[in-house]
Structures are given as structure tokens and as C-alpha cells.
């Protein structure tokens, strides 16, 4: 398997098109994580089915969030994407998130070339409000059966704020 952090960088952050690697397909309750030391995907745990991911979940190569992992991505597509693929994705916002007291932001993206929607999504404002509500509900409650109240969606940020979060995470990676 390719080491995504060696063969890919974060992409064109200023241009708003980044590289994304899918860890968890939408609809899955498998918590699959990229193991940076072994350069493989690892099944961390199986969550209750009621907390299956509402969207594809992945990371941006050569980034490091404040929690010590690669910067997370919420990738919105109509159908689930398999673990291990990479794609170019358009940044449309950021979900400011805290998990057990640690900053664990999520960059919200869509495929850079989405002919199904006609590339209709360019910002969080373009998304259905119900989708934002579902994402916020999921991430506010997905750990409730184990550690209730430990996850908090603090706010949503625009494309400019998302790009700043990515740039800070790239710098953390370089400082590693």
C-alpha cells in the first residue's frame, strides 16, 4: 500500500482544491484510521450502528491537527466512497470541533469535479440546512454511549477559515 503522506501533499490550499484520502465510507460504523507509523488503514473500533458516519470521512495528507492526527475531512457525496481512495476535493467550509477537550476540526469538502450536482456546492450556505443539522447532531452525540458530553461542535466556518485551519495543520506537519 502506498504511504499517502509520502506520495501526496495537501494540494492547492490557496486555490481551494486539496488532496483527500478516504478512511470511512458514508454509512459505515467501522472506525477506520490511517496508521501513520505503519502506513496502513487500521480498524480502530466498531461503533454502534446508530452512529454510522453520515458522510465519507478522511484526511488531508501531510497535515497535523492539534489532536496529533492528520486533519480530518467530511467528504460529501451521494454515494459512499471506499476506504483507501484519494481524490481532489473542493473546500467549502470547516466544522470547528472539540473532542474530549482537544481541538479536532473537520474540513468540509465535495469532489472537485462533481458532474452529478453540476459543481453546485461552493460553500456551506449551498448545502441543505438539514444536512448541516445532521452532521452537527452526529458529531455532537456519536460518543454518547461511551463518554456522553465529550464532543462539541463549536461553530461552522467559511472557506477562508477552512483554508487557515489547513495551513496551520500543514505547518504543524512540517514542524513534526
Automatic annotation (TrEMBL):
For binding Mg(2+) 1, which residues are annotated in this chain's numbering?
Answer: 67, 72, 104
Instruction: Give the domain of life.
Output: Bacteria
Q: Which residues bind substrate?
A: 31, 45, 57, 142
Which cofactors are reported in the record for this sequence? Mg(2+)
Listed under catalytic activity are: diphosphate + H2O = 2 phosphate + H(+)
Keywords of the record: Cytoplasm, Hydrolase, Magnesium, Metal-binding
| Keyword Cytoplasm found | yes
Compartments in which it is found? Cytoplasm
Citing just one GO molecular function, the answer is: inorganic diphosphate phosphatase activity
Coiled-coil spans in chain: none
Keyword Transit peptide attached? no
Q: Where does Mg(2+) 2 bind?
A: 72
Q: Which InterPro entries match?
A: Pyrophosphatase, Pyrophosphatase_sf
EC number in record: 3.6.1.1
Q: What Gene3D superfamilies has UniProt attached to this entry?
A: Inorganic pyrophosphatase
Subunit info here reads:
Homohexamer.
Which protein family is named in the record? Belongs to the PPase family.
Q: What is the official name of this protein in its record?
A: Inorganic pyrophosphatase
Amino acid at each position: 500500500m502506498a504511504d499517502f503522506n509520502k506520495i501526496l501533499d495537501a494540494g492547492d490550499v490557496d486555490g481551494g482544491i486539496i488532496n483527500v484520502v478516504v478512511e470511512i465510507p458514508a454509512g459505515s460504523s467501522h472506525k477506520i484510521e490511517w496508521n501513520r507509523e505503519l502506513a496502513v488503514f487500521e480498524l480502530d473500533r466498531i461503533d454502534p450502528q446508530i452512529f454510522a458516519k453520515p458522510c465519507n470521512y478522511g484526511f488531508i495528507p501531510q497535515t497535523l491537527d492539534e489532536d496529533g492526527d492528520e486533519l480530518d475531512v467530511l467528504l460529501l457525496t451521494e454515494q459512499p466512497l471506499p476506504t483507501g481512495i484519494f481524490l481532489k476535493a473542493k473546500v467549502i467550509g470547516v466544522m470547528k470541533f472539540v473532542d474530549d477537550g482537544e481541538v479536532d476540526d473537520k474540513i468540509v469538502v465535495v469532489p472537485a469535479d462533481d458532474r452529478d450536482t453540476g459543481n453546485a456546492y461552493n460553500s456551506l450556505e449551498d448545502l441543505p440546512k438539514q444536512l448541516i443539522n445532521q452532521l452537527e447532531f452526529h458529531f455532537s452525540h456519536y460518543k454518547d454511549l461511551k463518554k456522553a458530553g465529550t464532543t462539541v461542535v463549536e461553530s461552522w466556518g467559511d472557506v477562508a477559515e477552512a483554508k487557515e485551519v489547513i495551513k496551520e495543520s500543514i505547518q504543524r506537519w512540517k514542524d513534526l
